[in-house]
Amino acid sequence: MNFEAVKSIYLFEMARMKRTLLQSVISPVLSTSLYFVVFGAAIGSRIETVEGVPYGAFIVPGLMMLTLLQNSISNASFGIYFPKFIGTIYEVLSAPISFLEIVLGYVGAAATKSMILGLIILATAHLFVPIEIKHPFWMLFFLVLTAITFSLFGFIIGIWADNFEKLQLIPLLIITPLVFLGGSFYSIHMLPEFWQKVTLANPVLYLISGFRWSFYETADVGIELSIAMILIFLALCLSIIWWIFRTGYKLKT
Amino acid sequence: MTNALSIKNLSKTYDTGLTALNGVDLDIRRGEILALLGPNGAGKTTLISIVCGLVNPSTGTVAVEGHDIIQDYRKARALIGLVPQELHTETFETVWDTVSYSRGLFGKKPAPQLVEQILKDLSLFEKKDSKIMALSGGMKRRVMIAKALAHEPRILFLDEPTAGVDVELRKDMWRLVKRLRDTGVTIILTTHYIEEAEEIADRVGVINRGRLLLVEDKAELMRKLGQKQLVLELQKPLEQLPEALSDYALELSDGGTRITYHYDTQATRTGIASLLAALAGAGVTVKDLDTEQRSLEDIFVSLVVEESQ
Ligand SMILES: Nc1ncnc2c1ncn2[C@@H]1O[C@H](COP(=O)(O)OP(=O)(O)OP(=O)(O)O)[C@@H](O)[C@H]1O
Ligand SMILES: [Mg+2]
């Protein structure tokens, strides 16, 4: 294992993110605050509690998941797409490092950043509503695994994309709708029965549900299902990464 | 001692069906400067890209100081520094950071003194805190060289290092190349220009359409270059060469009106004076005469033409 190289990529990526730190922190903090104003104050004053949890507090795990998913994907996809785009990827490919080490460096940095952002959201939310975390271990479990899994996913998108449109396409067209429709802001029990069934096909639901369970012990689906789902995602992304590694897909001719 | 580079039967056919390399065999000795000479699209960059792990070979093997580039890629690649043909640089990073990063990427512990020395050698030290995007093209090229040297490679590839480079940088570069060679670094550079190969290389390889046409010591090539030919236009056509001239290896052509004589400019006696005397003695009248030097260009062109026929 070439630790020096992994460390170099990781620190290089972290430095890149640090340069844009302000905007990457301000935007989620601002949007979180807006969500609280709009959903928490306006709607929350009518709904009051969902499954025994005050509405403002209820949406916090969903908000964190939203940021976590969006940021993991965009950080990691951009992180590997950019060197491909400007051509500096040649250096990484000609270095005495394995594909695994490349992934560790890039995905590690992207996941770190999105976890930091997730925790910033938590801190911001805490200013608006009281929050309790009943199962801190599982909370961290979902936080870390989601960040890693979706950073891997972002890495795959970054390798696959050969223009900026493709880079934006999947997060915009697939991930954001799935998060919004995955019960970030409501419990699926509030939906008509038919739509409840449809929503069960949304994989993101399982992540949000499990994550929320770690806070309040309320869940749309069984916690085991949520754990299984995140592990399935992880395994899926790892297999695709492994396949890219075997074939040199889009990296080597 | 194993060769710096040992390439065997290397071929590459791209997905487009184009064969960019066709059965190349090449051994590069440690510590030599080899110039790969060839026209656009000859396969020079493809060859380098395979050795550096950027392109997968279709057939053949490459060993770097005995380490196979696929089975033993870590050891092989650790020995190699690459300055690619195109300018690919980071944008927002500083010169210092990007060069240090290159060192880390190759698994080497940070060495600020070494990075400082490299930057000084390339007249980049004053720019160490500048963002790369604020540098001129020539300076960016220097940065790319610095990046390639940051991990102290034993073998350095320079893919068309003088494209778009001014005289000053070119001189700097050749000085650096020679200094590196003196420390035992093997250098492989590509170029379109014969003078460049002549100026810097120990050996020259000529490549065209994916085939390596010749690899020769520069001295040997220069000796071939030392060959001149004397062409004599005759007043009257000759049926055949007179007996008295049989000592000279002459060619009679153009219906007997032209005699061609090859000689070596470096020889103590070229034999021109005695040839002319012998001609006069045999009663052959010379109308005009001309001498021609065979240049590397000629050799190159004739090789390339031969090959495409
Ligand atoms: N990725 C690729 N896919 C398909 N064909 C390619 C690819 N890269 C190079 N080629 C083709 O392979 C041939 C050799 O290209 P290469 O870049 O190795 O030549 P070169 O000798 O470096 O030329 P130049 O002097 O112009 O740099 C060319 O015909 C080129 O079009
Ligand atoms: Mg080239």
UniProtKB/TrEMBL annotation, chain A:
Domain of life the protein comes from: Bacteria
CC per GO annotation: ATP-binding cassette (ABC) transporter complex
Segments forming domain ABC transmembrane type-2: 19-248
Record bears the keyword Membrane: yes
Matches recorded under Pfam families: ABC2_membrane
Membrane-spanning ranges: 21-43, 55-73, 140-161, 167-186, 221-245
One Gene Ontology molecular-function label: ABC-type transporter activity
Main localisation: membrane
Keywords carried by this UniProt record: Cell membrane, Membrane, Transmembrane, Transmembrane helix, Transport
Localization, UniProt: Cell inner membrane; Membrane
Membrane topology: Multi-pass membrane protein
InterPro entries per the UniProt record, alphabetical: ABC-2_transport_permease, ABC2_TM, ABC2_TM_bact-type, ABC_2_transport
Signal sequence, renumbered to the chain: none
Membership in a protein family: Belongs to the ABC-2 integral membrane protein family.
NCBIfam families linked to this entry: PRK15066.1 (NF011648)
Designated name of the protein: Transport permease protein
Automatic annotation (TrEMBL), chain B:
Record-linked Gene3D superfamilies: P-loop containing nucleotide triphosphate hydrolases (3.40.50.300)
Location of the ABC transporter domain: 5-234
PROSITE patterns in alphabetical order: ABC_TRANSPORTER_1, ABC_TRANSPORTER_2
A molecular-function term among this protein's GO annotations: ATP binding
Swiss-Prot/TrEMBL keywords: ATP-binding, Nucleotide-binding, Transport
UniProt family annotation: Belongs to the ABC transporter superfamily.
Protein name: ABC transporter
Species the sequence originates in: Nitratireductor indicus C115
Lineage: Bacteria, Pseudomonadati, Pseudomonadota, Alphaproteobacteria, Hyphomicrobiales
